[in-house]
Each structure stands twice: as structure tokens, then as C-alpha cells.
Design goal:
- The chain is an alpha/beta fold.
- The chain has two domains: about 130 residues, 3-Layer(aba) Sandwich (Rossmann fold); about 150 residues, Response regulator (Rossmann fold, 3-Layer(aba) Sandwich), CATH 3.40.50.2300.
- The protein contains ten helices and twelve strands.
- The strands form two sheets. It has a six-stranded parallel sheet with strand order 2-1-3-4-5-11, sandwiched between helices. The protein has a six-stranded mixed sheet with strand order 7-6-8-9-10-12, sandwiched between helices.
- Helix 6 links the parallel strand 6 and strand 7.
- The longest helix is centred in the first third of the chain and has 23 residues.
- It is elongated, with a radius of gyration of 24 Å.
Amino acid sequence: MGQARLKFLGFAGVALMLLAACGSTGGGGGTPAKTYKIGLVTDIGGLNDKSFNHLADLGLEKAKTDFKIQGDVVESKSGDDYVPNLTNFASKNYDLVIGVGFLMQQAVGTVSGQFPNVHFSIIDGAGTDANGKDLQHPNVQSLFFKEQDAGAMVGVIAGMLEKQGKAKKNQHVISAVGGISIPPVDHYIAGYKWAATMEDPSIKVLVGYSNDFTDPAKCKNVASSQISAKSDILFQVAGGCGLGVLQAAGQASVYSIGVDADQKDADPSVIASALKKVDVATYTAIKNVVNGQFQGGALTFSVANDGAGYAVDNLQLPDDIKAELDKVQGQIKSGGLTPPSEKSW
């Protein structure tokens, strides 16, 4: 009995040693399992913009859950913060540094050149020089969107409501408030104007800019001017600043349309939101790094690959508008319709 017991304990000891070895090597590969480090640098709108930066953070949080990565965020308060914030993560050898926004292009171009062994992704842009020329650094991945696809979908809603006399003032006037006139903003507005005009050829589309992405008061002023000019459906394309558009619409008892995220809860006036799935793009970039599939160049997110779309919010849409939305979305996916991306105002 004593000898059998010793033999059993010997086997048990070996088994425990094997278990311990497997547990310390992340599957017996001989080295500890790697914890990927991801750094996210927001644009000046910050995490509380309820749209663009917030969505990027949601993508990071999902990746933290799914891939057990270390994910850290730093908020930019001004454009002067871009280079230091990106450098902070790159100098610590993070596996991926993500810049959120077109305005960060030159900063990403500069820092990615200084840290060629660090992966970078930038939402809505590329790593450029001071003249806006893409430096085509192999360690930079651009995450682009066809915002015009999402803009077109909410433009269909606005145009049909005006055409059918189901808006608030029914003067065939709608509008958009952009933050700064940069390509992602103008793409949204181009698609919106095009689709609204397609549905209601008599429609007038007013476009204004706040030249700001953070201060709701500035956007509210632009929106109030548009409401005075008879606009009764206002599309905000200005991040955190655009929350002022939604508020102005609510106070004037007209309709508004949110941007990037579903902004249904931002104000009761929000009847729809143009969705730009920044969370999906952020998550995809992280997943590619974790899976060893990072590639320099560009990924584009659109209606065709569910990277852009729309949400219907605080309004019950008539069945014929729903049918038209399904039809237009299908035609955009198939290439039968191509919303424009260029300014026409």
C-alpha cells in the first residue's frame, strides 16, 4: 500500500508540474502569452461627444473584452496635443496606436515616421505631410468611410417627409450643419442633399458650418438661423458641437437627424441618425493586429459592408418610406446608385 501510495503521489506531482507549465506558457509554447497594448488618441471632441470619439472607445472596449488586450485612451484638448499623445503610446512600444479623426493626419504622418516599427491606424485619414500628401508609410492603416452612403439614407427620409407634407412646416426646406468643411463632413452632406433632392426635386437644402466640433452653442446659432429660414429637418454633422443643432430643433418643435452614432436619446426631435460605424472600424483594426494581419494602406467601410447605415429614431415612418429606404439601400449596395461625395453648395 505504502509503495502504491508513493507511486500515485509521484504521478500526481508530475501532473501538477505539467499543469503549471502549461498555465505559465499560454498553451505550452514556451513563452508567456502576449498581451497586446492598444493606445487610442481621441480628437478634440472627447469621449463625451455622443458620436465619433465615443464610438471609437466602444470599439476599443469590445476588443478588450474579446481579445483580453490592454487598451488605453488619452483625450486631445487641442490640435497641439496630437503629436505628444501619439508619441506617448508609440514610445512605449504599443502594438497599435489609433488616431481618431481627419484633423490628426499630419500628426500621424510625423509620428509614424519616427516609429517605423509601431503600427498606426487613423480614422478618416492617412499619415500625411504638411501639404496633406499621403506619405504611404507601411506601418499606417487608413480607416475610411463612405459617409455619403449614410447621408443618402437619412436624405431619403427627409426628402420623402417633405414631399408628402409630413414634416413640421412643409415648406420643402431642410438643412445641414457641418462642423468644419473637411471631407468626412462634406461627404455626409453631399449624400443627404442628393437623396433628398432625388425624392423631392422641389426641395431646398441649406448648408452651414460652425467651424467647431466641440461647442454646442456655436452649432445652435447656425441651426437657429436655418430654422428662421424655414428649415424643419436639420442634419447635424458636427460631433459634440452638433448636439446644439438637436437642441435647437427640439426647442423649435421641428425635426433633427443625428450623426455617427444613434442619437435617439440626445433629444426628442431626433427622427433618424446617419450611422458611421467607427466602433466596427476600430475593432477591425485591433483584431487585425492581434491576428497578425495588419496591412498598411486603406480599409473602407460603407453600406455595402455594413460599415455605414442609418437608424430610425423618434418617429414612426410610413410604410412607403420604409420601402423606399430598403430599395435605395439595396441599390447602393449593388452599385445601382452611387451617392456623390463632392460638395455641390
